[in-house]
Amino acid sequence: MGRSPCCEKAHTNKGAWTKEEDERLIDYIRVHGEGCWRSLPKAAGLLRCGKSCRLRWINYLRPDLKRGNFTDEEDELIIKLHSLLGNKWSVIAGRLPGRTDNEIKNYWNTHVKRKLISRGIDPQTHRPLNEKTTTATTTTTGTTTGAAKPTANRVTQLNFENASPQSISEIKLLKSNIDFKCSKNFNSSFNPRKPESVEETNCSSSGMTTDEEQHQHHHHQEERKSSHENKEINLELTIGLAPIRSELTPTSSSNLADAESKLQQQAPYQILEKVVTRGVCTCCQLGSQRSELCSNCQNSNGFYRYY
DNA sequence: AACGAATCCAACCGCGCATGG
DNA sequence: GCCATGCGCGGTTGGATTCGT
């Protein structure tokens, strides 16, 4: 039952890394490159599990890491991206060169949360703390800095038992603007550590389901959920743009103006305005760690494709 | 100076996804 | 289609450090 352990724990070191271990790991990766983390420790002569090596490299040893305090610009960017993406630290990290998901996550929990609260903004919803948009009560435990409670759920469950019909319809409307992770293609293509798939699936129409298929899929999901959602909506906050994307994948430049105006209508995610007006495709904004823009996204009229 | 509280952050853990046999 | 495996992600932990009294 269950998966086999990632390594033989009895023979691995744990805890803080020594300088010697760091050097061994750096030397090995310098020669052989990243990857094959499972076999790396043995090959490099390290008594660590592969996961541990990977983490140490990604979060601490990578040469392109930027150390030191976050700038105000980085601060604001993190807040904006979090309002868009939620706790997708790796995606957010993809937009902050030299920063790791772990670093951003820690920074968020220790600094940014507090900053937002002091501004009267709910760090989870990015709405004013005293705003009552619905009578819904979230079951996510409100965590204060450094006092994270063990909530294994990655899904925000909302209880709508006491919600008014108007609130429920508002929520449904919002929900219809949100992709409930219904498109696996989109999800996997969002992985910043797989830029090739970003380009293949996001930046070209090939390899994607058609708009019609996506609508049907979405519709079926809606039907399945509809009998339950008055009481409890499973509001998966991970990615919020697939339906928008399907509308906005422009096939001609004439569609771009429509696309832009539609994007700007997505009121709950006003941050999109900024993404759009910056004139950079979301695939490059969010997905790719490469500094240059993906060529498939560029259009002759100066716009980029949005997803 | 001493002590407890608060904070920071590197590292660990467990789960989900992708992939290949 | 099923299963095993590897990797990556997000949540959490706990030791180290800083702060306040």
TrEMBL record:
Region annotation (Disordered) ranges: 123-153, 189-230
Residue stretches of biased makeup (Low complexity): 133-148
Polar residues: bias regions: 200-209
Domain HTH myb-type, chain residue ranges per copy: 9-61, 62-116
Biased composition range(s): Basic and acidic residues: 212-230
Pfam families: Myb_DNA-binding
SMART domains: SANT
Superkingdom of origin organism: Eukaryota
Gene Ontology MF terms: transcription cis-regulatory region binding
Segments passing through the bilayer: none
Predominant cellular place of this UniProt entry's protein: nucleus
Gene Ontology cellular component annotations, sorted alphabetically: nucleus
InterPro entries registered for this protein in UniProt: Homeodomain-like_sf, Myb_dom, Myb_TF_plants, SANT/Myb
Compartments reported by the entry: Nucleus
PANTHER family: F14D16.11-RELATED
Designated name of the protein: Uncharacterized protein
